[in-house]
Amino acid sequence: MSGSRPWGKIILFSSIALFVISWLIKAGVLSSTGGVTDISVRDAFFVTLAAFLTLAILSFLYKDNPYYKFAEHLFVGVSAAYWMCVGFWSTFVGNFIPRVSSTLSGFFGVPFKEFNVFYLIPLILGVMLLMRLSSKTGWIARWPLAFIVGTTAGLNLIRYLRSDFVNQVSNTFVPLLVEWKGIGPFFSGFSLSASGQFTLSLTNWVIFVGTFCGLVYFFFSKEHKGFYGGASRLGIWVLMVTFGASFGYTVMGRVSLLVGRLTFLFQDWLGLIS
Amino acid sequence: MNKVGLLISFGLIGAGLLWFLIRAIRGQEVERRIIFVFIGLAVAVPILFNITFSEKASPIVEAVYDKIENLSSGSKILISYDYGPSMAPEVEPMSNAFLRHSLAKGHKVYIMGLWATGQSLAGAAIENIVKKEFPEKVNGVDYVNLGYKAGNQGVLNVIITDIRKMYLTDVAGVNLDSMPIMKNVKSLRDMDLLISVGGGLPGVKEWVQFAGDPGHIPMAGGSAAVSAPLLYPYWPTQLVGLLGGIKGAAEYESELVRNYPRFAKMPQPGVKMMGPQTLAHLVIMAFIVIGNISYFIIRRRQG
What we know:
Largest sheet of chain B: 6 strands, parallel
Oligomer: heterodimer
Helix content of chain B: 40-55%
Radius of gyration of chain A: 30 Å
Mean pLDDT of chain B: 94
Distance between the termini of chain B: 49 Å
Strand content of chain B: 5-15%
Distance between the termini of chain A: 45 Å
CATH topology of the largest domain in chain B: Rossmann fold
Radius of gyration of chain B: 23 Å
Order of helices and strands of chain B: HHHEHEHEHEHEHEHH
Number of strands of chain B: 6
CATH class of the largest domain in chain B: Alpha Beta
Shape of chain B: elongated
Structural class of chain B: alpha/beta
Number of domains of chain B: 2
Number of strands of chain A: 0
Low-confidence stretches of chain A: none
Strand content of chain A: under 5%
């Protein structure tokens, strides 16, 4: 370990030196125009900081290191503080104050609505939640927590039942022969376009068969043999296709984030692309 | 399209893949960091050479476009910024395209966010898009930024009956009752279209469950690719349409530019990102094939 310390210090000082040089170049201080640039010294600092933090996070791909840890902890801390500040101004000042005090409303510059005693209940529950910080009175926090869990579960139960169960079942009841007027008109107007009768009917068949076979796979009260076994096997294929689509989309999402970061480095920091 | 750039990209990627294939046939392992560097190059080179491909809107994207396009001028559209900076490269092109399209059509735009980070990103969109590209639009008349409120789907549960129970002012502290845009707007039910752009929780799913479905309000979405497959079953009955990942954003941008030539000079980050995206996908598909070749060769040698 002692042998790696000098290298650690060299890398640290080199990083700081590179940061300062990059900042000065970005701000135009070192340019021949004598500092005339379209970006202020403050903005140049933040762009350089963002670039170095990006590189610090990407350095994890090589191996875990103190620079990655620093960037990670900074991100968590800043995020938590940001959410708390915005929450205070938007909810505590924006919603609570106008319903409890005209004096405080005037102080914070928000329009006073009218005194509403019910708004004191979330205040009390909020204070009770903070009791968790004390080891002696921590048990009090269980009451507001129970209220939150109960309310969320109740709300979600109804909404999920409606949107993700009843409506989804309803969405599966689709016509298997869309706008069917007979075999003659079907072939005379045959088209492979996305809005064509054939494509729409095929899509509905895929939904019907896919849903049916997917459900058969998860029905374990009957042995998966014969026709039932065939439907079950098709159900597995449907599930595999779904997992494949999810994987493909996940890859697309991750690559998009990488493209976003590299574009920032090349465009905003290094100025290689316009 | 930059043909030289495309040639260099394909040459570099092809040479790299050949090297991987030779190692796979020989049964030699590849250090994972080399794979990271290779993926990085496959993404970086197309960015540097500005490689793009033409996009055409798929039916699910076209449905959103047509909905905004066919609403009569002055209709009320609510756009919810339900994302943070970590998701922004993927979904910000969508929210920007929705904003441009809605304002170009003369709709009234109501902006809000169920994510605290969405509030400042919406503010940036107003500064960079609305004020620069639509200087004639007036805050409080043509658009309003309501900001963020804590409570996730609980917020939707309230504003579906009364917006003013949650929002007394806009994000700058201006009383909503003093704004012309808020006249005759009591709840979400007064909106002609709801659009949620996000990819986490709360996001499009919660908007469908807590606003679109119970209020019978037309609802569209723009989602990060990771959560898009979970939202497709909502289309076309519970969602008017959906933009899934950067591909959806690119399709919407190209449709917008095709019909509104004035946007041709505007940034099209979705279309730009599809170049590196396509090449990165080709590399990953090749990796899957090479991995399988390696697997069968090793199994044959062992067996």
